[in-house]
Amino acid sequence: MKQILINENNLKEEDLESTVIRVKGMIINSNKEILLAHNNGTYQLPGGHKEDDEGMEETLIREVKEETGIDVELENGPFMQIVTYDANYFGTGKKVCSKIYYYIIHTDDVPNYDETNYDELELQTEFNLFYTDVKGLDRFLDDAVSEGTLDPNICKEMQLVIREYNRIYM
Asked: How many domains does the chain have?
């Protein structure tokens, strides 16, 4: 598993107040299209926060089901991890270590909105799903940053993940 540390504020481990663990799924169909979510004014890969009593794979299976309505079986563990030391985690002023584990999910199952279970924020901000070509994703993300529909930091992380996927599978 490839690991990347992003620490633009040069924080030390002892500076960190807490750790947040999330999982994300690169859901890719046989046409080499990737499923993206658009929510709260930005694009993202389906996934979410690990709950205290869950394992990583359990979290991903639950989050993918809640956000896409797709039941998945994982073939492998995570292929990539991005760890970010953030001095102002989502504008809270807190110094947080964020660990995101990325998994690859190959399936031709399509989103089933009748099986989703969106939280209040997802409902209020019109959670939408769509497919885009894996090969064109890098450009799509750059365009989204230019248009102001994607946070540059999220774009950077997604591009690192896509490039690692392309290195391994394309």
From this structure: 1
H helix runs in the chain, sequence order: 56-68, 120-124, 137-147, 152-169
Residues 6+ apart with CB under 8 A from 160: 4, 80, 82
What is the separation, in whole angstroms, between the first and last Cα of the chain? 17
Cα gap 68→37, rounded to integer Å: 9
**pLDDT (tens digit, 9 = 90+) per residue, 125-151?**
878 899 999 989 999 999 999 998 888
Structure-token pair, residue 117: 């279970």
CATH of the domain at 110: 3.90.79.10
Range of the domain at 164: 2-169
- pTM of this structure: 0.93
Residue with tokens 């709260």: 40
Alpha-carbon distance values, 169 to 8, 10, 101, 136, 162 (Å): 30, 33, 18, 15, 10
Residue type, position 110, single letter = V
